[in-house]
Design brief:
This protein is mainly α. The protein is built from 19 helices and no strands. The longest helix is centred in the C-terminal third of the chain and has 40 residues. This is Drug resistance MFS transporter, drug:H+ antiporter-2 family.
């Protein structure tokens, strides 16, 4: 590896802001859209309960492209790929705002997803290549702040724009931010090189693993949103599982596989990946379902629905500060087994929400859910990475990011399929019946989340525990949710 570039003081101060802009755009976009779905559906003449493809297309694209992001940055240059990512995300946002139909928006969301999939990992790579080791923790902590700010303001900002302007502005708001990011990248980002030989990209592995993700998610979406026949959709998902088995067998003899099979020799990594995959099937759909419940079932305005979601994020921020102390005292296994059961119970508790429930009680439920959900994410992500060696960390982190996006897209697809069954034949004007349908969906999702407890039982005993006389051990850096 070549020596890291010597940054002049001005560039060293501004470069983290450039990367933070990209992080902010990506994290804001992941939450701002949920509150706007009913308004978009009304304008496009579509059932608001059939809008999940707008969410899934973005998440699935991010999951598909992330494995190639590092190789593309090394092949074509970090600055060039980062600039391309911001430009593509910005153009995709403009195209979404101008789209006249749901199908065209879905296509434009795929463009956004490609840009989003490149912005975050390549942005993190910029920091790793440009700053000395002693500054990394400070800079990485700074650029991840948007990961908390974006979800905090996303639902409320989305509701405000929809109510007082139009849903188009949830995409148009990215344009000036993207332009600032492009100009700042051109002026302040240095040309960073990898050094050494570039290994060939694992194209076959990428196609096998990508086909697995694509067919599983599209099969679930076909059953839920498109109401296609069960038999061909099930066959599609079976084909996806065959591709996954094929990838596993192929990766065992390939010298440089997309994801090394040696990762799964680490017990906590294997448990963490499986736990992330299955636990998120339950809670990954909550940001999609809850704004729909509040607007369609409860009759809230977009602005009120967005503001009602704020306690979830406040709870998540509160939990972030306590996660390290909890893990250090009780260990990953106890925290995740207990917390996963609590998570399933809290999701199921959403089934009690109705027009008769006091508003303050609903906010309490949202806050507690935010605390438990954030603790779950933090502990799941970090236990996955905690025992990896330095050589394994990059590949393991990349696979974790892929699984996070895949499981959330599958969670949305599963939730939409369940909700579709409960709402079949129910007019959206029947608020009581719609709320009842959401209640049944929440109960199913709570069960899905709770049964993943059996996975976390297999975490290495006492993993994460720190003796009382020692200082608290910080959790390893994990991908943002």
């Amino acid at each position: 590896m070549p020596d890291k570039p010597v940054l002049d003081p001005k560039t060293a101060k501004i470069l983290p802001w450039v990367v933070a802009i990209a992080f902010f755009m990506q994290m804001l976009d992941s939450t701002i859209l949920n509150t706007a779905l009913p308004a978009m559906a009304h304008d496009l003449g579509t059932n608001p309960l059939r809008m999940q493809s707008v969410i899934i297309s973005y998440m699935l694209t991010v999951a598909l492209v992330i494995p190639a992001s590092g190789w593309l940055a090394d092949k074509f240059g970090i600055k060039q790929i980062f600039l391309f990512a911001i430009a593509l995300f910005t153009l995709g946002s403009l195209a979404c705002a101008l789209s006249p139909s749901l199908n065209i928006i879905v296509g434009c969301r795929i463009l956004q997803g490609i840009g989003g999939a490149l912005m975050v990992p390549v942005g993190r790579l910029v920091v790793l290549r440009a700053y000395p080791r002693e500054q990394l923790v400070t800079v990485l902590s700074f650029i991840t702040i948007p990961g908390l700010v974006g979800p905090l303001i996303g639902p409320t900002l989305g509701g405000f724009l929809v109510q007082y302007a139009s849903w188009h502005w949830i995409f148009l708001i990215n344009i000036p931010v993207g332009i600032i990011g492009i100009l700042a990248t051109l002026k302040y980002m240095p040309y960073l090189t990898r050094g050494g030989d570039l290994h060939p990209f694992d194209t076959v592995g990428f196609l096998l693993f990508g086909t697995f993700m694509l067919t599983i998610t599209l099969g679930l979406q076909g059953i839920g949103e498109l109401h296609l026949a069960y038999a061909p959709m099930v066959l599609m998902m079976v084909f996806g599982l065959v591709c996954l088995v094929g990838y596993i067998m192929y990766s065992r003899w390939h010298p440089m596989p997309l994801f090394s099979p040696d990762l799964f020799k680490v017990r906590n990594f294997s448990v963490g990946i499986l736990g992330n995959l299955f636990a998120r099937l339950g809670n990954g759909a909550m940001p999609f379902l809850t704004p729909l419940l509040l607007q369609i079932g409860m009759g809230y305005s977009p602005m009120k629905a967005g503001m009602t979601m704020i306690p979830m994020t406040i709870g998540a921020v509160i939990a972030k500060s306590a996660a390290t102390r909890l893990v250090n005292r009780f260990g990953y296994r106890l925290i995740l087994t207990v917390n996963t059961l609590l998570l399933g119970a809290m999701i199921a508790l959403f089934s009690t929400i109705s027009k008769e429930m006091p508003f303050w009680l609903m906010l309490v439920i949202f806050t507690i859910f935010g605390i438990i959900n954030s603790t779950q994410f933090t502990a799941m992500n970090t236990v996955t990475l905690v025992d990896l060696s330095e050589e394994q960390a990059s590949s393991g982190n990349s696979l974790l990011s892929v699984i996070m996006q895949l499981s959330m897209s599958m969670g949305v697809a599963i939730a939409a399929a369940i909700l579709s069954e409960f709402t079949d034949g129910i007019p959206l004007t029947s608020a009581h019946d719609v709320i009842t349908a959401f209640a049944g969906t929440y109960l199913c999702l709570g069960f899905l989340a709770a049964i993943s407890t059996v996975i976390f039982i297999h975490i290495t005993p006492d993993s994460g525990k720190v003796p009382k006389k020692q200082d608290s051990k910080p959790l390893p850096v994990a991908p943002e949710d």
